[in-house]
């Protein structure tokens, strides 16, 4: 009995995902075509990358509200660089680096100056968005991918028939999974969320690890920004607004505690897919956008209630 | 109040935690409830206060049968429970805390501040506590918080007060005051059930002693008719002949020298040497600065001036990471908040400081961890069903062994243990002394900070006595007695 309980604890969110897939498929079998499945992965990749970074942050009992703004700012800079003639490869590397640096800024304020993560990232979210508006004058950069084949590849490319965004999504998952589960850094992430003082007194470099999780989160957000810019073939100054909420939702649906110390990256992976299947599936079976919002909210609540029951 | 609990049975699932437990408390009596961790004391008290329901047995108050379904029921019968971790909200005032959930109200639900403040003031004065009822809890001393809890009990006219380890965080002065108040209240007709691991206290304060073991009632004795040894024997179920086993080791060369260590307001001019294979005791009253010195040596709290040398070389220790790399380990006094991540497993806790030793090409090796953890579970005799159970589910003694194992896994040359046996039962205490002895034989230099004088005298080779932030005297064990140490600790002895 106990065994079943722990299996359910581990795979409860998968059950939710499977039930969703079954419901959607039974209403419209087109959902289960290879084309559509690849499409779902393509769609979830942006939220997925951000949510993976967010998982690290939340495991340390932090939060990163600035992910959407980092996506917007780095995406805007990417568009402006390319339209002003910078080779796309260099521009991409530059904005990825910049995403990491913006995360570093968050991380240093939180770990060294000991400010609350919620407040710091709320402020930087606002400020980064402001910078985006200032440098773009509120006007999108258009036709960004027309002379940028590498950037174009980020959304349109595929390897062996697998869309490149999906490859990025799965590769990031695997790399970050190893980082979280199989390195001393990952152990430190959990320990800080479990009890930061115990971690510090156990000679774990708590400040460095806390800074690093925001660097990871910033980097993943800018990577998501590259994909979005590529997909839209333009840089929108409002790109990424409210993306932080979808990312947090995916992490929480995946069973990671907002109090830190407890949760798994695989849970986030499933959480991202649940949100993706909801978005895609509800469209396919023709539910109106208003109802979609409502249903998404209900599913998030249900998933969290299920998880709560499991952990008791 | 006269209380009689008898034939109490209680099971959680398949586990029977109480079988035929009993306790009989008379009028005007301070009654000690003793037993090792896991003996069932807390469960019995939770049944008395209506937190748990009993499976069988009777509770009589002044001869009348009672059934308690909730804490409210027991409070109505004037039973108060003061928990070890006090139930006070630090950011609220004394009066708000004391009336929490039972505020006095005027019309329209407006709080009757004046009346409440007046009542609280009365009770505080009764206990000789001269602070304004509006003071926030965080601004009064730990000892005073204990008194606020007692005042809270008096507010409900409690006739039986249960106290769980009330002295664990108090200074000697505060303890004296607390005992005086308990005795006064007893003489005014209040009965007490007093739970503590400190033998000396029990014999000083209590009139009667009930001993439990493995969920059962063992015996009730009048304090005047029994002895330390008899009680301990009843608690552990066998003769524990020597409370402090000792090994003699010729100390080796000096491994650490501390010179002029100072942190304003915390400690001044700390000066001592530590040798390999030596156990150096740190004695002194609570607040004399002992713990702060240890944190400074360990790099977890910065200091202002002075030097620390390890192996003859001056070192700069500005973080626990540096300390660990120099071979220094610190077992903190507060294992629940500083020693263990309670939600984490035994294995995950044990390898926290030594995780880098378990990596190969940056990747953690779970098998290596499992085998080392298993080794230390066996070496230190940690009683745990497996490595993956959360540490919060283990007893205090076993938790403490895990904290010790945590640092042994880093192979320390210098190990600092701050109150290593606090809240640990008698059997586990002796095992911890055994571990210290084995380390000593292996040439590890050990510092033990302890508020229990018999322990310091029993296991240490030299005793550093601190008084008001300074080292007052370093006494070799042969010359030390409780009286001498106490004299220096309280500022005398020139």
TrEMBL record, chain A:
<feature type="transmembrane region" description="Helical">
    <location>
        <begin position="117"/>
        <end position="139"/>
    </location>
</feature>
<feature type="transmembrane region" description="Helical">
    <location>
        <begin position="265"/>
        <end position="282"/>
    </location>
</feature>
<dbReference type="Pfam" id="PF02653">
    <property type="entry name" value="BPD_transp_2"/>
</dbReference>
<keyword id="KW-1133">Transmembrane helix</keyword>
<keyword id="KW-0812">Transmembrane</keyword>
<dbReference type="GO" id="GO:0005886">
    <property type="term" value="C:plasma membrane"/>
</dbReference>
<keyword id="KW-1003">Cell membrane</keyword>
<feature type="transmembrane region" description="Helical">
    <location>
        <begin position="65"/>
        <end position="83"/>
    </location>
</feature>
<feature type="transmembrane region" description="Helical">
    <location>
        <begin position="212"/>
        <end position="232"/>
    </location>
</feature>
<dbReference type="GO" id="GO:0022857">
    <property type="term" value="F:transmembrane transporter activity"/>
</dbReference>
<keyword id="KW-0472">Membrane</keyword>
<feature type="transmembrane region" description="Helical">
    <location>
        <begin position="159"/>
        <end position="180"/>
    </location>
</feature>
<feature type="transmembrane region" description="Helical">
    <location>
        <begin position="12"/>
        <end position="28"/>
    </location>
</feature>
<feature type="transmembrane region" description="Helical">
    <location>
        <begin position="89"/>
        <end position="110"/>
    </location>
</feature>
<dbReference type="InterPro" id="IPR001851">
    <property type="entry name" value="ABC_transp_permease"/>
</dbReference>
<protein>
    <submittedName>
        <fullName>Ribose ABC transporter membrane protein</fullName>
    </submittedName>
</protein>
UniProtKB/TrEMBL annotation, chain B:
<dbReference type="GO" id="GO:0016887">
    <property type="term" value="F:ATP hydrolysis activity"/>
</dbReference>
<dbReference type="InterPro" id="IPR003439">
    <property type="entry name" value="ABC_transporter-like_ATP-bd"/>
</dbReference>
<dbReference type="InterPro" id="IPR017871">
    <property type="entry name" value="ABC_transporter-like_CS"/>
</dbReference>
<keyword id="KW-0472">Membrane</keyword>
<dbReference type="Pfam" id="PF00005">
    <property type="entry name" value="ABC_tran"/>
</dbReference>
<dbReference type="GO" id="GO:0005886">
    <property type="term" value="C:plasma membrane"/>
</dbReference>
<dbReference type="InterPro" id="IPR027417">
    <property type="entry name" value="P-loop_NTPase"/>
</dbReference>
<dbReference type="GO" id="GO:0005524">
    <property type="term" value="F:ATP binding"/>
</dbReference>
<keyword id="KW-1278">Translocase</keyword>
<keyword id="KW-0813">Transport</keyword>
<dbReference type="InterPro" id="IPR050107">
    <property type="entry name" value="ABC_carbohydrate_import_ATPase"/>
</dbReference>
<keyword id="KW-0547">Nucleotide-binding</keyword>
<keyword id="KW-0762">Sugar transport</keyword>
<keyword id="KW-1003">Cell membrane</keyword>
<keyword id="KW-0067">ATP-binding</keyword>
<dbReference type="GO" id="GO:0015749">
    <property type="term" value="P:monosaccharide transmembrane transport"/>
</dbReference>
<keyword id="KW-0677">Repeat</keyword>
<dbReference type="InterPro" id="IPR003593">
    <property type="entry name" value="AAA+_ATPase"/>
</dbReference>
<feature type="domain" description="ABC transporter">
    <location>
        <begin position="249"/>
        <end position="493"/>
    </location>
</feature>
<feature type="domain" description="ABC transporter">
    <location>
        <begin position="3"/>
        <end position="239"/>
    </location>
</feature>
<protein>
    <submittedName>
        <fullName>Ribose ABC transporter ATP-binding protein</fullName>
    </submittedName>
</protein>
